[in-house]
Target: Simple sugar transport system ATP-binding protein
Amino acid sequence: MASIPRIEMRDIKKSFGKIQSLRGVNLELYPGEVLGLVGDNGAGKSTLMKVLSGVHIPDSGTMKFEGQPIQLNSPKDAKKHQIETIFQDLALCDTLDVASNLYLGREPVHFFNQLIDQKKMHEQAKTELDRLGVTIPSTYVTVENLSGGQRQSVAIARAVIYSPKVLIMDEPTAALGVKEVRMVLELIQRVKRTGVSVILITHRLRDLFEVCDRITVLYEGRIIDNRPISDFTMESLVASITAENEEVHS
Model:
């Protein structure tokens, strides 16, 4: 594991009125690492990731990217640091085809008339999907006609196309069938092998044991456990999430 974290968050605090969502969270993420971020509902997972993706500004605390201090005041700031987030709703346009979704807002254009170069866009889309091992009937198929796993794969591919260094994934296998879950987990492994750091939020605990290197457990806005996946069993992970074990590992 690299000595310098790709992401380092220190003493992050965030409140909404009287509700303390984050109570001084420290988190590190290393290059090429898949980190599972888990906790019961209301533990602070989504708030912490929205801080990292620039959606929420923390009340206090510091962040570093590859050893350098950063301040994320918007999702645009996060993208500048190559931090991409795939939220649970995927934010895909159902009525557009696969290639148009992949390059939405960043479409290749003809030099002379600045119109979208459809041929080039679909060729690039196919190349990128093939590189990631994503199986789609055609880049001309509208997203609304894809399966859940294929839609998730398109959302991941859209984020990966622009070479992120950090990829945050919120419940990527929720509501998917067994075969589609396998497709998404294999895609996460491929993304990891390219050196991307992945944060995986999921309630499907078995998925964590398939792809994660380390698990961080949040409980009531605090990290109460942080260990390599090899240190966990399913039973010990459940016990940690429910705070049955009072010992804090870090």
About this structure: The chain has eight helices and ten strands.
